[in-house]
Specification:
The protein has 122 residues and is of the alpha+beta class. The chain has helices at 7-17, 66-71, 99-107, 116-121, and strands at residues 3-6, 21-27, 34-41, 46-50, 53-55, 62-64, 84-87, 90-93. It is extended, with a radius of gyration of 18 Å.
């Protein structure tokens, strides 16, 4: 089953992959069978998803195979993940932070430190 979605939903994944084609591999949320879902970014900004359905709630990426999606397109029985981070000396659930701190959390960027050999060579 092919469906179209907007770039804003998958923008982060296309940027991370530095490609117009990304592949999601995992287990179907309903039947637990392995599923591979392809997302292709067209020049007009539309994304074509094939091989199943993708769900991108705040809790993460969920997928369904075509068969399960046709039987029930609604994502059911998933639990959002609680994320804790340290702010001002103690750990709290980020969903309890004020809007400003939540915005800072969403704007954080991940980076990898160079290994010791690279640092010693510099």
């Amino acid at each position: 089953m092919e469906s179209e979605t907007h770039l804003k939903d998958l923008e982060h994944y296309f940027k991370e992959a530095k490609s117009n084609k990304i592949e999601f591999k995992g287990d179907c949320h309903d039947c637990k069978k392995p599923v591979t879902i392809m997302a292709d970014l067209a020049n007009d900004g539309k994304v074509t998803v094939s091989g199943g359905a993708l769900y991108l709630p705040e809790a993460g990426v969920f997928c369904k195979c075509d068969e399960c999606f046709k039987a029930d397109p609604t994502l059911r029985n998933f639990q959002p993940v609680k994320c804790f981070s340290r702010v001002v000396g103690f750990y709290t659930d980020i969903n309890q932070w004020n809007k400003g701190k939540q915005a800072e959390w969403k704007n954080r960027k991940e980076y990898n430190l160079p290994d010791k050999q690279t640092l010693n060579a510099a």
